[in-house]
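User: Phage integrase SAM-like domain-containing protein, Haloferax chudinovii:
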Amino acid sequence: MPDRALSTPLDDSFERYLQDKGKGRGGDGGNYRRNAARELERFAEWAAGDRGDDDWTGIVPDDVDREPTFDDLDERVFREYARHLGGDRGLKQNTVQTYYRYISAWCGWCVNEGYLEAHYAQRASAMAPLPEDDGRKPGDQQAWTSEQRHALTRHVDERARDAIETYTTLPEDTDPLDKQRARYAALKAARDRALVFVLAYTAVRVGELLRDPNDPRRRGVRWEDLSLDDGSMDVYRKKQQWDAASLPDPVISPLRSYRKLMAPPAERWPVFPTFDQRTLAELVQEELADRGERPAAIDERRNEYARDLLLALDEDIRPPSITTDGARSILQRLTEAAEIDIDHPKHDYLAPHGGRRGMGEVLVRAFGYTVAARYLDNSEEMVRERYSHIEAGELGDVATEALQEVDSIVG
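Assistant: Predicted structure for Phage integrase SAM-like domain-containing protein:
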């Protein structure tokens, strides 16, 4: 091991590692990169003595004044960090395992890159303090039940129908701004309905459907990506390639109605644009200024519209798609408005991933693992693992039936 590598400060390796693990051009995007960067920063602070118990002074000898380097790392360091994660931060068992894996993955990369001579983080003695898995099974993850799915889709459908009817039946002499407000309300309700139906019935991952600020390739589906006649939608899959996803019949009508109401000025418009007023105000002002409009003229133009979204539509100022976090906020609002009871330890609303898992349950029960795997864009092995609780339940029914038959014969 070169002395130069051993004397390298730990954080000098972070950027190269994150670029290798990141997504997009230059490795600047991706949720993994963001989460790994956070955990590496925490590890570096802990190693320097800036995080942990009051008596923790870090991994550098007390009589040495320098940053932690690779020469300071061995399996005892990672054992101590595992103990810190498990006991000092009050984290759940699975979370401790996850956070340690980020550091362990970096350690393995450092071995390959010549910073370390051994993968200390994976040694048994280093991992010994980690808590055991808490036993949570895939079936414990939230999955929308049929009753919840119907309650939510019925709520957003009724809400959209009412808003659209209110807008389309306004008297001809309605004040223009009042008419715009009604159109905006109808657009928002129609967007929410379309989003809920897509999440409920397509089983598309929310990260494939909407914008991810940490991954420049995931800019949210656009109208050009949809073929309502064919019942398909092009999405950028988790496996890092474009692929067609199915749009089943329940989804087509909400999307058609929504598109007709929106009348997007270009096919490159996002299907689910943000309605955030601050974002749209800044976007409209910047774009009109770039087109040569003066501030006074921009203000006058904006005053003609009840909402900046409507001005953006008229001027073809394309807004960004809502983010995955934005979708969660929308579903929180809609779940509460629909008065749907949620009994789940982690989510008190119908979370986006629950729609996908709910469809997975329906497909596995109706058609088996092979068909479900194709629809979910997963391997059959993974689907079997994630929905193993279904097979276990069915086997339990078989066992019960068998016992009843045997007992009746014996009796």
